[in-house]
Design goal:
This protein has about 120 residues and is an all-beta fold. Helices cover about 0% and strands about 55% of the residues. The strands form 2 sheets. Strands 2, 4, 5, 6, 9, 10 and 11 form a 7-stranded mixed β-sheet that branches.
């Protein structure tokens, strides 16, 4: 599976962005997709995840209520809608995939920069 993330950019605080992650290759119903981010000097943070088959979702507390993860099976694409953005959301955002709930995230996209100005 290959992942291609896009949609990052520069936005003012309070604004919105939608990230996309297009997956090539076969995506099975057991797969989980997720968005992570990494800010300069900080560790990688898992933000949101979605199961490909059941569309169940989970969120980190830091983005709950502001970010929404969704998927469109017909396009093999996962989205991250980001609202009410804050300067502390500035980071490189990555999409990732794993083959089951219990697996590690083995497939990663290249990252897309999100910069939120105050």
């Amino acid at each position: 599976v290959q992942l291609q993330a896009s949609g990052g950019g520069l936005v003012q605080a309070g604004g919105s962005l939608r990230l996309s992650c297009a997956a090539s290759g076969r995506i099975f119903s057991t797969y989980f997709m997720a968005w992570f981010r990494q800010a300069p000097g900080k560790g990688r943070e898992k933000l949101a995840a979605i199961s490909w088959g059941e569309s169940t979702t989970s969120y980190a507390d830091s983005v709950k209520g502001r970010f929404t993860i969704s998927r469109l099976n017909a396009k093999n694409t996962v989205y991250l809608q980001m609202n009410s953005l804050k300067p502390e959301d500035t980071a490189v955002y990555y999409c990732a995939a794993k083959i089951s709930r219990w697996a590690d995230f083995d497939f990663w996209g290249q990252g897309t920069q999100v910069t939120v100005s105050s």
